[in-house]
Design a protein that fits this description.
Length: 468
C-alpha cells in the first residue's frame, strides 16, 4: 500500500500546543515511560511504545478522542514503507542460512586467511553476512564459526570474535536495509541510495578501528578466555545449523547478497549523473533500484542460487521462506510502534520545538541527532528504538537540508543508537553467554566496542558534512 494513501486517510493531526515547557514535560514523561516499561517492568517494546505515545499525547494536551490518532497513522505508514523490506530481508537471510550459503562465504574466506589475517577475515565475513541478516540472526550464525576459527587457528577467541561482532553491529546501525536506518531514512525524507553509499563509506573505516584494531586492546583488557565448547565440531567453519547435502558456489552467494546493494547504488548514481526523470535509463534504474524491487529481485534470485543450488525442492524453498517471517513479526511491530511514537512527537509539535531549542543553543543538527540517540540508547537498551525515536524528534531539522546532509543525519542518529550497550540490551546478554564471559568482561569488550563504533562513526560523519 502506498504510505501517502495511509496518511491521506488518517485522522487529523493532534493540535500543537504553544507551551514549550509543557512539550518538554510531555517528551520527558513519554520517553521516561518507555524506558521504565522496557527496562524495569520488562514490558515488550511494542506495548511500551504504544503506552508511551498515549501518555505523550495526553500530557501535550491532545483531546481524549484523538489520543491514538497520530500513533495509528504513524504505525500504518511505517509498516507500509518498512515492513515489506524487513520481510524480504528476512527471507533472503533465511535462504542464506539454511542453504549453507553463509558457510560457503566463511569457508572460502577463511581458507585463504593466514593466522595473522584471521581478524580481518572475520570482519569481512561479518560485513558480507551483515548486509542481509538481522543482528541477532547474524550473531547466532557467526558465533559457531568464530569458535571453530579460534580453535583451528589457535588464537584468542576475542581476537576473531570482536571483528565479527563489529562487522554485524556497524552494518546494523548504519547501512540499509536494516530496520533502524530504513525507518530513519523514511522519517528524515533522505534518499536511500545516498544513505547506503555514505553508510558504506563511513562503515569501512569504523569497522577497521572497532574490529581488528580494537580486538587487540579488548584481548589485553579481558585476558584469556576459555574457549566454549561447540557441539558437533568437525573442524569446519560452518557448524551453525544443519548443513545441506551440497552448498551453493561462492560467486553465486556473493552475487545474491550484493545484488540489492548494487541496484540501489545504481539508482543513486543515476540520480546524480543523469538527473533527468524523463531519461529512459534513469527511469529503469529508478525502478529496479527501489528498495522493494531490489530486495524482491535478490530473494527470487536466492531461491535459485541458494535454495536450488543446495538441492532444495520447491516445497522446501517455500517452507524456508515461510519460516523466515515468524521471527521478524516482533521486529515489524516494534518498528511500527516506533513510527507511531515518532508521528505523535511530530504532531504535538515536539520536532518544531527541538528545532527552536537547537537554534538557540547553536547545536549542529548532526550532533544533536547523535546525542538524542545516545541518551535513548542508554536508557532503553534498544538501538532500533533509539534510532526511530531520535529520528522523529529531529525530523524537522532535515526539512531544509540537502539530500546528502539528510543522509548524514540518518547516519548520525544510527551511530548514536549503538553507543555503550549494557545490561538493559538483549545483545549484551547474548554476547556474554555465547563467549562465556562475566558482566565485567562483557563491558570491557562488547560495551566498549559498541562505544568505539558510535564515536568513530560520528567523528567521520561530522567532517563529511563540511565537505559534501
Amino acid at each position: 500500500m502506498n504510505p501517502s494513501l495511509l496518511l491521506a486517510a488518517a485522522p487529523p493531526a493532534l493540535p500543537h500546543t504553544h507551551s514549550d515547557g509543557r512539550l518538554l514535560v510531555a517528551v520527558l514523561l513519554g520517553i521516561g515511560a518507555v524506558v521504565l516499561l522496557i527496562s524495569k517492568l520488562k514490558l515488550h517494546p511494542f506495548l511500551a511504545l504504544t503506552l508511551g505515545s498515549g501518555l505523550l499525547a495526553a500530557v501535550a494536551g491532545a483531546p481524549f478522542d484523538k489520543l491514538t490518532s497520530s500513533f495509528v497513522s504513524g504505525f500504518g505508514a511505517t509498516v507500509a514503507s518498512v515492513g515489506l523490506l524487513i520481510g524480504l530481508g528476512a527471507m533472503l537471510g533465511k535462504l542464506l542460512a539454511d542453504s549453507g550459503g553463509a558457510n560457503t562465504i566463511a569457508d572460502t574466506v577463511l581458507a585463504r586467511a593466514t593466522p595473522r589475517s584471521l581478524p580481518w577475515a572475520m570482519a569481512l565475513i561479518a560485513a558480507l553476512l551483515g548486509l542481509p541478516l538481522f543482528f541477532e540472526v547474524g550473531v547466532v550464525l557467526l558465533i559457531p564459526i568464530v569458535l571453530v576459527v579460534a580453535r583451528r587457528g589457535n588464537v584468542p577467541v576475542l581476537r576473531v570474535g570482536i571483528p565479527a561482532l563489529a562487522g554485524l553491529s556497524v552494518l546494523h546501525g548504519l547501512v540499509p536495509p536494516h530496520p533502524g536506518p530504513l525507518v530513519a531514512v523514511d522519517a528524515l525524507k533522505a534518499d536511500l541510495g545516498t544513505t547506503l553509499a555514505l553508510g558504506l563509506l563511513v562503515a569501512v573505516p569504523t569497522l577497521v578501528v572497532a574490529g581488528p584494531l580494537f580486538a587487540r586492546v579488548a584481548e589485553r583488557w579481558v585476558g584469556p578466555l576459555p574457549l566454549p565448547g561447540l557441539a558437533g565440531d568437525t573442524g569446519t567453519a560452518g557448524d551453525a545449523g544443519e548443513r545441506p547435502g551440497r552448498a551453493p558456489a561462492f560467486g553465486a552467494v556473493l552475487a545474491t547478497i550484493l545484488l540489492p546493494v548494487v541496484l540501489m547504488l545504481g539508482k543513486a548514481l543515476a540520480d546524480v549523473v543523469v538527473d533527468d526523470p524523463a531519461d529512459p535509463v534513469q527511469r529503469v534504474l529508478d525502478f529496479i533500484g527501489s528498495p522493494l524491487v531490489a530486495l524482491l529481485a535478490a530473494v527470487l534470485l536466492g531461491m535459485v542460487t541458494l535454495g536450488r543450488a543446495a538441492g532444495f525442492d520447491r516445497g522446501r524453498i517455500s517452507d524456508t521462506v515461510a519460516r523466515s517471517l515468524g521471527p521478524v513479526a516482533g521486529i515489524v511491530f516494534i518498528v511500527g510502534a516506533g513510527g507511531g511514537f515518532k508521528q505523535t512527537l511530530v504532531d504535538v509539535g515536539v520536532g518544531d520545538a527541538v528545532s527552536h531549542w537547537a537554534g538557540e543553543l547553536h547545536i549542529p543538527a548532526l550532533l544533536l541527532g547523535w546525542l538524542i540517540a545516545v541518551l535513548i540508547r542508554l536508557a532503553t537498551g534498544s538501538a532500533t528504538v533509539a534510532t526511530i525515536t531520535a529520528a522523529g524528534i529531529v525530523a524537522p531539522l532535515a526539512a531544509g537540508m540537502s539530500g546528502t546532509h539528510a543522509a548524514l543525519l540518518v547516519l548520525a542518529v544510527g551511530s548514536g543508537s549503538l553507543f555503550f550497550s549494557h545490561v538493559n540490551d538483549a545483545g549484551f546478554w547474548l554476547v556474554k553467554e555465547y563467549f562465556g564471559m562475566d558482566v565485567g568482561q562483557t563491558v570491557k569488550s562488547w560495551s566498549v566496542m559498541e562505544t568505539v563504533i558510535s564515536v568513530v562513526a560520528i567523528a567521520l560523519i561530522l567532517p563529511l558534512s563540511l565537505v559534501l
